[in-house]
User: What shape does this take?
Amino acid sequence: MIQTFLFYCYAALAVIGAIGLVRAHKLLHSVAWTLLALSAVAGLYFSLGSEFLGAMQLFVYGGAVTILTLFVVMLTRQGAQEQEKEDSSASAPASARVPVKRLAALVISLVLFCVLTIVFVSTPWETVVPSPQTSASLAEILFSRYMLPFEIVGLALTIALIGAIVLAREDDPGDSADATDGVAGTDDGGTADGTVAADTDDDPGDAAEEGNAL
Amino acid sequence: MIALKTLLGVVVIAIVVLVNTIVVMWCERKWLGHMQSRQGPLRTGWHGALQPFADAIKLLGKEDIVPANVDRPLFLIAPIIAFIPSLLTYAAMPWIESFVGASLDVGIFMVFAITAIFPVSMLFAGWSSFNKYSLIGGFRAAAQQVSYEVPMAVAIAGVVMLAESMRISDIVNAQHGLYYIILQPCAAILFFIAMLAEINRTPFDMPESESELVGGINTEYSSMRFALFFVAEYINVFTWSLIFSLLFLGGWNGPLFGGWDGPLGMVWLLLKTYAVIFMVFWVRATLPRVRIDQLTALGWRILLPFALASVFITAIGVFTNNFVLIVLEVIATAALVWLIARIGERAGEARRSEASARRCSDGSAIIPDPGSSPGSASGTSHTEVGA
Assistant: This one.
């Protein structure tokens, strides 16, 4: 009884969060809604007896991913929004393209929804009794049967990390410049009038990143 | 029936936590006062014992100001997002074997995961305040908490390896007779340092450093919303001290009635917790604030390698015996303490030489630099070691 009730509570929260995420006008609000949706999914895992997965969901998605998203959104926010406004108001062809865009978005999401539904319905779901020692059994499987994939994933992530550091460093000689750059970037964003050209940071990577985000 | 029991348990645990939080607030004022040769609060109640209540009533009576231009919804919910996870951690926290929210199989990881949400509230508060100092405070909070989570998690890994379980009560019971602070001194020190950063205490209180950020994320908050941040901060102090005493100090084990599943076990646990809290306040009274680049450098270049080394040593210890483990851990601890002391000394020297160089260029270097004498340099290193 309580289980079912909790399930519907979490499910409703997750759906509300997802709708809020799409409907929100400010990017930061979207992130807040995302936090709600992801935490609700963690709640779902808990109510299904999968504690490890729930804690992982909270830790990785609730904590780390949300914070990373916040950082990215904050450091690129101003330019992106201003650009959007310019697109929609100043140039007439852009506003004429909006219905086409909406139609395309509708078609793509409908197709995706149908495909996912078919997959969900047609898959025979195995149900297992949750073991009381979830983390121990998980570790056993991970370090015996799936040892090689586990190691490969670890290696791939390490490579990605090193690659990200190499890309982010550019030719910056200063070690501590990254942290100060981040703060300076937001300050610029707060005062600049939206034109990316106004970004007079001595770091060329900063401008390039903003360009990518647009 | 189960629902009623759960509800009762939630209420009881929340009350226990909040009462302890009030005691922690009072302790900080009194202890800090006496460490600084003053009395602390005296007039409200016995030795100022009612001061936290008076503060709470004062804050409740204040006007809840929402400044113009703030991002209203985020500004309003940020303190709540800060408060909820700090109380939610107690869902998985045991006090004694039979008095526990939920004895989860992933207990310590669960607690850790919930506290990971806290920096999100800091970022929301900093951004929504429409104040550059708040924003910088929020950024600092997120950066430091995210980067110090890593050495902390790795430090906990050693404990989990020894106890062969993530359930907190299993970890405590595994320490019967031999506490993990003896087996894992290096991990304990790393955990303590990372804990200070995690709860934004001096020397890592950059997010709200009054002298440079005018209170950081707290700047624009008033009344109950400020109180929520304030209370969340003190709950976190208590939470992490409790975790430290559960993981490293043997929890409810003790010489007298040790491991007894009754009120006395809880007395032991609380005594240990308050000892850790005393350490936290002691550090606050002793050390000045570090710079943000020093903080990140310390986290990534020293704490993380040493935490990984500690895990490696623990693995060796698990396959050999406790004696090898203790010897290796003590060597690692000595190296860690020496390295931190050395860095402090170097930073002091660099600062002094820079200051004297500036004075020389000003042309006002008539007064000899007191810091350049060898006597005072060694004095600095002593304070750093004492840290």
About this structure: Confidence is low (pLDDT under 50) at residues 176-214 of chain A. Helices of chain A lie at 2-23, 27-47, 51-90, 92-122, 134-142, 147-169, 177-191, 204-213.
